[in-house]
Amino acid sequence: MTIQMLKGKIHRAVVTQAELNYVGSITVDSELLNTAGIYEYEKVQIVDVNNGNRFETYTIAGEPGSGVICLNGAAARCASEGDHVIIMAYADVTPEEAQTHKPKVVFVDDDNHIARVTHYEKAGALYDDERL
């Protein structure tokens, strides 16, 4: 048996573009993806902090250091430019792995550049704070 747990998260990124006439997905600065441990084409859940929408899509790696967060296709209707979103990826782990699993969390500034990288403890508190 496996259970699904949070693997990596980009917290409160600002949507920089919304391209309705595109095949689908979310384009994310590849530096943010790599730091959060999220792979290109990986399924992600996105939560729009401004309007409460939750939806799933997959990632496309954007130019590193660009700060791009672009919702493509139908996802472009779920959030607007300037909205803050949380991008989350999950992993299936065994109950034994879950005992020591610590998700990676990337906090960004208003330009979607990395401000802090951390992990969650079991109780949900942050630790291993790495300020960049």
UniProtKB/TrEMBL annotation:
Its encoding gene is what? panD
Q: Which reaction does it catalyse?
A: L-aspartate + H(+) = beta-alanine + CO2
Q: How is the cofactor bound?
A: Binds 1 pyruvoyl group covalently per subunit.
Cite the EC number. 4.1.1.11
Q: What broad class of enzyme is this?
A: lyase
Entry keywords, A to Z: Autocatalytic cleavage, Cytoplasm, Decarboxylase, Lyase, Pantothenate biosynthesis, Pyruvate, Schiff base, Zymogen
GO molecular function, a single term: aspartate 1-decarboxylase activity
Which residues act catalytically here?
A: 25, 58
Give cofactor(s), names only: pyruvate
Q: In which pathway does it act?
A: Cofactor biosynthesis; (R)-pantothenate biosynthesis; beta-alanine from L-aspartate: step 1/1
Instruction: Look up the signal peptide feature and give its range.
Output: none
Regarding protein family, the annotation reads: Belongs to the PanD family.
Question: What interactions and quaternary structure are annotated?
Answer: Heterooctamer of four alpha and four beta subunits.
Q: Where in the cell is it found?
A: Cytoplasm
Q: Describe the PTM.
A: Is synthesized initially as an inactive proenzyme, which is activated by self-cleavage at a specific serine bond to produce a beta-subunit with a hydroxyl group at its C-terminus and an alpha-subunit with a pyruvoyl group at its N-terminus.
- Is Cytoplasm among this UniProt entry's keywords? yes
What task does this protein carry out? Catalyzes the pyruvoyl-dependent decarboxylation of aspartate to produce beta-alanine.
Residues given in the record as substrate binding sites: 57, 73-75
The record's InterPro entries line, in alphabetical order, gives:
Asp_decarbox
Name the chain's protein: Aspartate 1-decarboxylase
According to the UniProt record, list the residues that bear Pyruvic acid (Ser): 25
